[in-house]
Amino acid sequence: MSLPSIYQHKFAEKLTILNDRGKGVLIRMYNIKKTCSDPRSKPAFFTEKTMEPSIKYINKKFPNVDARSSTQHLGPVHKEKAEIIKVLNSYYQSFVDVMEFRDHVYELLNTIDASQCYFDIHVNYDLTKNYLDLVVTYTSVILLLSRIEDRKALIGMYNCAHEMIQGSGDPSYARLAQMVLEYDTPLKKLTEEFGPHSKAVTSALLSLHFLFVRRNQSAEQWRSDQLLSLISNSATMLSPASSDVMACEYLSLEVIERWILTGFLLCHGCLSSNPQCLELWKLGLQGSLYISLIRDDALQIHKVTEEFFGSLKGAITCPPLHSGQLHRNRRAFLRNAVRELEALLSDQPGLLGPKALCVFVALSLCRDEVNWLLRHAEHVTKTKTPEDYADSHIAELLFLMEQLRTLVHRHGPVIQRYHVQYLARFDALLLSDIIQNLTVCPEEESIIMSSFVSTLSSLTLKQVDKKEKFDFSGLRLDWFRLQAYTSVAKAPMQLRESPDVGRVMNLIMFHSKMLDSLEELVVETSDLSAFCFYVRPFEKLFALTMEEPAMLRFTIAFPLICSHFAHCTHSMCPEEYPHLKSCSLGLCNSFLEEIAKQAANCIMDACAEQRKLSEQLLPKHCASTISKARNKKAQKQPPKKGEPERDKPGAESQRKDRIVVTNMDKLHQMLSELSLSINHVPSFTVFEHTVTPSEYLSSHLETRSFVLMASYNQATQEIARPSEVLAGLRSYLAFIQSLGQFTCMDSSRIIRNVLLQQTQPLDSSGEQTLTTIYTNWYLEGLLRQASTGAIVLSPAMQAFISVPREGEQSFSAEEFSDISEMRALAELLGPYGMKFLSDNLMWHVTSQVVELKKLVTENMDVLVQIRSNFYKPEQMVSLLPRLTSADNVLKRMTIIGEILSFRSMAQSGLCEVFSNRCPFLMGPIECLKDFVTPDTDIKVTLSIFELATAAGIACDIDPALVTALSNLKTDSSSPEEEYKSACLLLVFVAVSLPLLASDPFSVYSIEMDGYSNNIHCLAKAIIHVSAALFTIHGKNIETHLKEFLLVRGCGQVSFHTVGLCARCTAPKGMLEYCIVEESSFLTVDMLETCFPYVLLRNAYREVHRAFLLNKLPAH
């Protein structure tokens, strides 16, 4: 072989291109196999019933399918020929790519054999590695091709459609069909093909013997060798980690194993003739049951070997009896060793310079063990030792790998500064000396090596400081070329005769990668993108980790691994990109959701514990303590032994033994572990999507409802007091606020969002909130009972009070409606919630007003006459008996008064809370309200009153009531009729009031400062409804209220005249006085014109006297 031909073969370039091309073809075959094996993704016509006969015919006749004369069998193909060509073109061209790839591989392997190249992983590392990679890649492509069940149908159907359209078959079809037939039994054909290449393959594999034996050790051997330990020999801690062939140190054991098993499977003749080959083969078999072809497609090597080798299996097979235990022990060792390594490098990142090789060795070993576990967990289904194929502590190993990757990325400049000096000040000088000492150095090789020295000598630290981009890809390709030139038989310079050149250049290659290919090297040694294709084991390992409390802090490793999946894409198969992207994001999202869910559950459980502690401090629990203190002071007997003694608040903090672990301790421990996981990284990227783990926890907490704290039972209408719920809520929020020391989430934002949701009718998930629950309960549970007389409003106590009745169980209304509860309710619901409550109350008021207007309409004629003649007793005597439903009017007005009284109490609670929270806002609002005069424009007045009402300030005219009643206007009635109806309603109420005197429940109570049947609520109803109605119609409120008093005074006389108040027992004038007191439009002087003050004074005296008589003891 002439010298120029050595350089013209371009082995380095061809091996580089063919390996990349082979990887792309392999991924395309994998994609076709996966697509066609899933009915949901395979071409549509492959699943159609009408196409089944055609597919069977093509498979039967393949490759000799006559598209012209077989119209009976290929009719469906003819109908859809255009669609078939369109859909199957990419499939067909992929098979053509396989054929072309095979041709180029044949040509290159034959040329290498003809050139008598020698391979030694320790001498010409790049040449040997790429050669073995090509052999394994080619074998994997052929094996995967043979696993595509529909390959004949795909190729044959495409060719038939092509012939139907073009008139002739595809030019590549004949050779392609022949290739497919040849590889029906792929291993048999492959062994025949590799017969001529057996010598080259065997020599390359035998060069791995020393390396494989040295690196494929048990965990015990690794431990005794202090593998990965930087502190085992402190004297060499700062010495650079080095080797004759640096790349061999972090070369994947899985890759070496695959080279050995695949190579000897193809060239098995040497196993019986060469003991060293047999020894290496057996060593390779002992490690795994399955070797990977591509991704999750694996070769069950022992089964294939036994079937293929037949009678020779006893001699050349070696069942891996303890491979599971071997790898389990390795993972346990690596967890400890890498933990120590990571801790040391984190503390002293400067060690990354001299010890960078240790990092990549650790990453490579960990990656191999993780991939082994994944591969076998997926494929090994029946085993006596399932613990060998499941690891609940795998998360720690994954986490440590991520930590090492992060250290390399974070301290890249440290590594660069070290190695740029190493290259310029040591490697360049050493290489120059070796070149000068070479006895034979042809011109071409001399030029290449001289360029190496000049390139390295020109490196300076300033390039690192200026953050210049290094690129040594040309230098590495030249070294690859030089290996190819000097590894052929007749080359003038033999690389194996100059081992120093290889040793130094391998060192230089590693150092150069530390400058320009750090990320690529990290990916090469620690890429875990295989998880993308082992979804089931991936999820199972995550589930095992979540069940292990000590591993919770490492769970973030699982979402972080999803960022690796982008590395498994290839430019030759862009169609799988969307699937890989969705799979990556889906897995990442599901893992983070589960972590956040667990953390949120833990937080809510801790909040519940805090609430229990907070409940112990509620005032209602101090009664027993007070009672016990009084009994002790009075020297009474202690309680019986059967009564359990209640612990005092704070007793839970007293512990005699620290070993005793409380539930709160467990929750804090679990929360700390999960928080470490969530806070590990602020964000990371998965397929161009930025993922923020803390946001998952925030979103979970924001959707958690506090409704359960209300303990609402719709069936029994039982509910917790607002003050108790508020106390519990404060304990919840205090704990969530303290999460700032655990997590990096914005606890203030979470609290704002959660509380804001509770002020709305429905939360973000469409569930009822505290606002809705308490609004419904106060309307249905409290005010409805008030309308039946079971609950009475007590102005003296400023609360609703339950009236005990025999045989009925009633709750204490005062416990839910006093000042403190209204204040707590306002704080719980907030301004939005209080407005929702107000709107619902107004809806019930308007429904009562609608019914009142109907009653007015029924009595329209009589009421018109009464209004015109109320000062004429003789006519009133005849008109009053004609009124119907007078008691109904009073009942509905009383209900309105109860609703408005409750709203007034709620507003006062809101006002107090608002004053405490925002005094700087309350002052200006009150000042603005004081500027309103009767002469102010009504629109301006209502706007100011609306602002004041929102702050809880009471106003003369209720804007919410005005708005609600103004919406009652109907198109059929004119404004004049509506105004007339409003006036007559006031007349109706005025002439009906005397009826209350005959009600036996119209009894005034000094203690409550009200009547037993809530008729004192009429005052608020009359004043506010009339003010709202006449504001709507733009009339003078004071004038109409004066008219009301006049009609009321004359009506009282008329009722006595007709004898309707014969059974009158209630004092006169007290209700009228309440009306005047309620209204800012009426005065006592106005009342004096209708009801002399002496009547009012006598009424109060009579009530007081009756109260005193009732308190006297009976004789």
From TrEMBL:
<dbReference type="GO" id="GO:0030031">
    <property type="term" value="P:cell projection assembly"/>
</dbReference>
<dbReference type="GO" id="GO:0016477">
    <property type="term" value="P:cell migration"/>
</dbReference>
<dbReference type="InterPro" id="IPR019137">
    <property type="entry name" value="Nck-associated_protein-1"/>
</dbReference>
<dbReference type="GO" id="GO:0048812">
    <property type="term" value="P:neuron projection morphogenesis"/>
</dbReference>
<feature type="compositionally biased region" description="Basic residues">
    <location>
        <begin position="629"/>
        <end position="639"/>
    </location>
</feature>
<feature type="compositionally biased region" description="Basic and acidic residues">
    <location>
        <begin position="640"/>
        <end position="658"/>
    </location>
</feature>
<protein>
    <recommendedName>
        <fullName>NCK associated protein 1 like</fullName>
    </recommendedName>
</protein>
<feature type="region of interest" description="Disordered">
    <location>
        <begin position="628"/>
        <end position="658"/>
    </location>
</feature>
<dbReference type="GO" id="GO:0030866">
    <property type="term" value="P:cortical actin cytoskeleton organization"/>
</dbReference>
<dbReference type="GO" id="GO:0031209">
    <property type="term" value="C:SCAR complex"/>
</dbReference>
<dbReference type="Pfam" id="PF09735">
    <property type="entry name" value="Nckap1"/>
</dbReference>
